[in-house]
């Protein structure tokens, strides 16, 4: 979840700020010039206030950290895209205000984080660094050269996580019974119609084909049919389709995957109904085109099993999370004094 990411992003923004400072001190030349022109100049961090939340000051360092969370590619592209920077900044500002409100709510409730939990989180955080020197550089750049300041930041994130678990996660949790009820109430959504899985080889006519051209195409198609019927399996037919077919499916071994009955010409449906999986059709003429197909499967209508759709439904119904989070944010803001600097 997003509020868990904030701890690891402390490292990302430190490295990004350092890289931005180095890049901004050099002129842009060569191949890097044009891509950079589409981006804003790297933001300069001065620890100036950008907002006050019930008197607590949020700085441009907090804001930039969140902007990198939203758009982590900025550090690779020497800044944020000009067209998106304003919206990224707005979203980042809203998020750091929200996190500060949640943190203050945790303090108001008197919530605590056990020292051993902070210790464990700190150990995981330090694993992100390649060396002790890199860790010390980070402390100097981002944490006022103080491991204690870092611990406070980690504790703050864990407190935010605690409150959001109670007010958002737990309240928005989707139970198995809710997922099952949705499945049972919407049977049409989970019903798959009859379909045919086929591969094709097609010989297509030129525009405004003459009778003579159509006859020559038919002769080519009859030769293709002989080759197709000599194939033994999916791969053989697919390789032949890639070699001689003229329809768009040739690049994928002629495979159409599963096609609904309503999407196929009646000539194909009639032939497929008389075939077994693995068989190759005869030559089928559709207007001036000639087609041969291999039937890989005839899939009757069926309702997808609950276990098959349960993972996707769980994610879909989780949209309830955003609603709960938005409601909670409004509650916190309604009794807060917020000043944008």
Task: Looking at this protein, list some descriptive labels.
single chain; about 350 residues; alpha+beta; Chitinase A, domain 3; four-stranded antiparallel β-sheet; 9 strands; elongated; disordered N terminus
Structure description:
The chain is α+β, with helices and mostly antiparallel strands and 341 residues long. The chain has 2 domains: 2-174 and 319-340, Triger factor/SurA peptide-binding fold; 194-300, Chitinase A, domain 3 (Roll). Helix content is 56%, strand content 13%. The chain has 13 helices and 9 strands. It has helices spanning 2-24, 33-37, 60-70, 82-108, 115-126, 132-142, 147-172, 176-185, 211-229, 234-244, 266-273, 306-317, 320-334, and strands at 49-53, 56-59, 191-192, 195-203, 255-260, 284-286, 289-299, 302-303, 338-340. The strands form 3 sheets. It has a 4-stranded antiparallel β-sheet. The chain has a 3-stranded antiparallel β-sheet with strand order 2-1-9. Helix 3 packs across helix 4 and helix 8 packs across helix 12. The longest helix has 27 residues, at 82-108. Residues 1-9 and 11-37 have low confidence and may be disordered.
